[in-house]
Amino acid sequence: MTAITCNTRVSAAEIAGALARGETSSVEVTRAHLHNIERHDGAVHAYLHVDAEGALAQAAAADERRANGAPASALDGVPIAVKDVLATSGLPTTCGSKILQGWVPPYDATVVARLKRAGLPILGKTNMDEFAMGSSTEHSAYGPTRNPWDLDRIPGGSGGGSAAAVASFQAPLALGTDTGGSIRQPGAVTGTVGMKPTYGGVSRYGLVAMANSLDQVGPVSRTVLDAALLHEVIGGHDPLDSTSIDQPVGKLADAARRGAEGDLSGVRVGVITELSGEGYQAGVLARFQESLDLLVEAGAEVVEVSCPSFVHALAAYYLVMPAEASSNLAKFDAMRYGLRVLPEGVENPSAEEVMRATRDAGFGDEVKRRIILGTYALSSGYYDAFYGQAQKVRTLIGRDFAAAFETADVLVSPTAPTTAFKLGEKLDDPIAMYLNDLATIPANLAGVPGISIPSGLADEDGLPAGFQVLAPALADDRCYRVGAALEAALERKWGGPLLDKAPGLDPSTGSGQVKLDQRNGDAR
Amino acid sequence: MTATSATGDALLSYDDVLAAYDPALGLEVHVELNTASKMFCGCPTEFGAEPNTQVCPTCLGLPGAMPVVNGKAVESAIRIGLALNCEIAEWCRFARKNYFYPDMPKNFQTSQYDEPICFEGWMDVEVDGETFRVEIERAHMEEDTGKSLHVGTSGRIHGADYSLVDYNRAGIPLIEIVTKPIRGAGERAPEVAKAYVAQLRDLIVALGVSDARMDQGSIRADVNLSLAPKVSAGSTAEAPLGTRTETKNVNSLRSVERAVRYEMQRHAAILAGGGSILQETRHWHEDTGVTTSGREKSDAEDYRYFPEPDLVPVAPSREWVEELRGTLPENPTQKRARLQAEWGFTDLEMRDTVGAGALSMVEETIAAGASPQAARKWWLAELARRANDAGVELAELGVTPAQVAGVQALVDAGSINDKLARQVFDGLLAGEGTPEEVVEKRGLAIVSDEGALSAAVDNAIAANPDVAQKIRDGKVAAAGALIGAVMKEMRGQADAGRVRELILEKLA
Ligand SMILES: [Zn+2]
To answer: What is the CATH number of domain B450-507?
Structure first.
């Protein structure tokens, strides 16, 4: 491999600038990230599959376009990692599950097609909790991802792979998906940025659904501007997704740039009473308060708002999500694709027996738990009491948001109640695990956008905390404006990005050299 | 009196059934729409393509794929609903019906549950001149499943060596039309069921929304039947409905009638013997004319319906609904009155025509140039008999209205007579081509060679001197016997009128 001359610690926007100025090439940038993957991913395990050859070919094509004076987009040539829940034609897509081991989709998710159209080389597919069910990436059937800040700790979930890849400079950008916090909570605990767009703002076509009415694809990055740039590439109407909103994606990068100028005069920031008190780690709350003060310094007006229904959000979420998931996951039956397990000791097994054996062997415990919960919640006689009630709670939460946005332009809270916990710490306590998403779930239930940006390190453990900014549906630009303003103020205070404070990853801590291109889960 | 069916089911005689029970019918008819693309994706819908060539990620249920509603299918659903006098929902949703089956790609069917697009309608069905109002509970949209082929000696899933699934049919738009329980039909229940399906089919044809071919499965009927104890005469009380069975995929009009009758007799035998009816799905066997038990369908069977979260609600504007109302064909009752007047049929002729399921064929035959009486004669006298002998519906016999009109045109031109026309129908049914080609191939044209005819008349006169004398004496009516003899010699290929003229000339 040629010498690594490219600086992978810079932002995607800076890489794009260097490419535009001809200071580097996409091949060089892509190769540098592949090199980082080779050095560090043995330890971090952010990726389930790395496509070095494909990424380099796409990078070469990007360089050629640029040489011809016709770059495909502002991010043409900037490499990206894609969460393994998004269909990529020709690249394995497992959703972190054994049941999809070896499945190679014949089609691209709309967001993946848009990445390709915009010229972003795809480095590989990132690790995740099985079918996005979890808050720690420990539920991946292919082993956990580790937090680059402390390899004994979780990187959040379900999109721990995407967040860890970006935090460890193994990719400048990544795609995540957020059903109850799977983009924002990993962002908070890894010191990175994660944005869940307005429901319907980004196409879900090709996203292997966990809960269709809650899922949303969004950007994972190290800076607010990078997230906005990526959002502009993937967002906008898609006729293949009926729930996609028929509106242009908006000037999000402009909003981020404007926010970074630091003036928030006239912006009303609402602190949600229900999401900033009990159950939050002291260091997380301290960083939250500090961030609020910086917003006030930037000219924002801080008000307190109450959203009383939010206390029911977690309960409603754990009815709606498993109900939809139980139905979505029925298609994994060994009949057409993916894993097929024949029942032991059964001669000439029936289709039904093969389905049962495959689903038993192919799904992990958390997935089974949610299938059982969801099946129960939808059962006749229980539907009204569970699924029906949960839908009513969603309506109430939507009303709380609507009322709150009468008095505030954005709502804020800590993203996650704690910093990253130790691997295994909450694995046997599902309720404790579910509580991680307390502050992120309301946005999914109401379909409003939310961003998490790093707010600093908690005093008790020196680990990153996150600050969440929520906006009304279709006002994603407000998340970027306020997020960028806060980011600028914090970086001035810190003297640079928070990730500069992360301990360096020693290549020798890895589990040894891993051959690129053969990093599919079954190698582990 | 009890008999036993081919499969060993005890059957009570039909008269005994009616003496003790009142049947309640329920019909669920699935209509496959003829839209160019599927319900939720852009795949084509043509019948008979190579297996699994009309598929995509969506209709294969691949992970991540999503549905998009076919607007043309919604339009067809609304038109069907309007034609059935239904209300059209201002707002309705699709729902998932969850159950596992290998020919269902997602292991749920995208259907509608408690929010059907059409509801609360009715259709008047005529049986022997009597009108029954069949109330329609709902008509909703859904997608078809794939088709399983069980390879092995049994042809059924049990005992198959292996099974193949063709997903070309998966996702084809279906409209399911469900009646409310039809009560009070009594002995006519089987005919009412058949007439309802027949009239519904005619309606679908008139709307142009489906190929409406029962033999190809583009219309499929499920027959629900239960019996209630007969209430005493004069009582206004209605006995509660009994336990029902659902007989699946009854694929011809005749089978609808037979399946209802069979289930009535089977239920009654069980009830009369003190037994109780098992709520279950049953399969109809066209060849043996019996139903057999399918899977048990208890109330515990739970499809866990919930609104399809990948689709937005369907909310047809009132303007659009009214616009579609304007595209409806004439309603069947008005149309019948109009045709009867145009054709000059008596009430009885009209009733027989409708009863034989020949209305549309007669109409098309007249449109193709035949006189109303000729069209009626061929379809009701000649072709209805043949259909009955073959055990098929008139429409499925294989003779087209255009062919019938062609045959009549040959008769009108004097090329053939009615008797020869029957032989032309033999040829048409044997696939020998157009009526003209059959006449040509079979040498059926009437002989107009005066020499041959004259010789045959001479022979007949010579062979029947007594008859000839009677005619000479002025008993012209006796000519019939000579005409018969001439026709026999000419093997029927002579114009009887010309033969009569020749006989009378020669014996004048
Ligand atoms: Zn398709």
So the answer is: 1.10.10
